[in-house]
UniProtKB/TrEMBL annotation:
One of its GO terms (molecular function) is pyridoxal phosphate binding. Keywords: Aminotransferase, Pyridoxal phosphate, Transferase. Belongs to the class-III pyridoxal-phosphate-dependent aminotransferase family. InterPro entries: Aminotrans_3, Aminotrans_3_PPA_site, PyrdxlP-dep_Trfase, PyrdxlP-dep_Trfase_major, PyrdxlP-dep_Trfase_small. Its cofactor is pyridoxal 5'-phosphate. Gene3D superfamilies: Aspartate Aminotransferase, domain 1 (3.90.1150.10), Type I PLP-dependent aspartate aminotransferase-like (Major domain) (3.40.640.10). This is Aminotransferase class III-fold pyridoxal phosphate-dependent enzyme. It comes from the Bacteria.
Amino acid sequence: MAGLGSNDKALRARAEAVIPGGMYGHQSVALLPDDYPQYFARAEGARMWDVDGRGYLDFMCAYGPNLFGYGHPEINAAFVRQMETADALTGPTARMVELAEAFVGMVSHADWAMFCKNGTDATSMAMVVARAHTRRKTIVLAKGAYHGSAPWCTPRPAGVTAEDRAHQIFCSYNDIASLEEAVAKAGDDLAAIFAAPFKHDAFIDQSLPDAAYARRARELCDQTGALLVVDDVRAGLRVARDCSWSTVGVKPDLSTWGKCIANGHPISALLGSEIARGAASHVFVTGSYWFQAAPMAAALTTLRLVRETDYLERIERLGARLRTGLHERASAAGFSLRQTGPVTMPLFLFDDDPDMRKGFAWSSAMLQRGIYVHPWHNMFLCAAMTDGDIDETLNAAEGAFKHLKGVAGGLGPVEKLAFLTA
């Protein structure tokens, strides 16, 4: 753990005694370079500080929830005002109706909305609604697509039974023939096609959706009576103000939302078209905290800022600057850096790097220069970032590429990711 601060080391030691594995889930740093801090103390705007006081420009944005900046004053004020009046009650407040109205008014395919807490809640609810609507069981999904951490969809299936994963058929993203084959295999039992807004699997290049593939998914659902589900938990509001597949002219029957819809306050959503309203009204889905008013108030303010500001155009412009600048600096240093996905949600991978040793070394060098990037997961830009932040990132990247060039011959394999080449 070279480079870790004493406070982080002490917290890790304490956690080992009381938290299984020391940490769990997607925020565990077990598969990150050894010098990445596990614990943080505060955040503001586009920056965060670890428990040892070191600050970073954060390109992970809490794995997506930070859209307008950590601690955004308007959004947090709305949350606090509502919290002081009422939050979790025996019944919901008017904020729930207002938020459903706001989503229906903003998302073109949506006629109704239901709210929950996590992305997994929303995708699981979508699956249940689709099965209730069609009275069928089978769902088609893309290989490697992430739809949450419930037994039916978790990418790490320890403790999961075959029955948990039954009635699933997989296809290759953006491959029409593979999609058609999966639908044919499902036969008359197809309940839904689950679609990621773009290919954002970990460890491999991202791919934007092919319009013909998206249209074919829509056609196949129309022909079979199945429902088309777009899982917008990760990408929602980061590639469009509407559902992400609006960019290719396709409307789903259901879409799932989360992460940034309240700028980090805990809430997610399932949006649906009229065709699925009956099924959605008959399934039993609930949670003790799903109806909290304060996160809904924060979401209402977030959606207002989405509608009234140029946040999306600004992060697209900053993302394009970042992509161009990184390409120039990597090329000048003699490296081939692949940058894929939307410019607002970039992924950086090196050519000729099968065990990611270059990526790990470069990411660590960026961290030491105050820039928090991820070596194998897509990242996020937020509206609190500025041109100055991009300049700072590009200057750090130039230094990190020079560092990598100087040590490249002595890099050893990254054993913690040995499964990539197994």
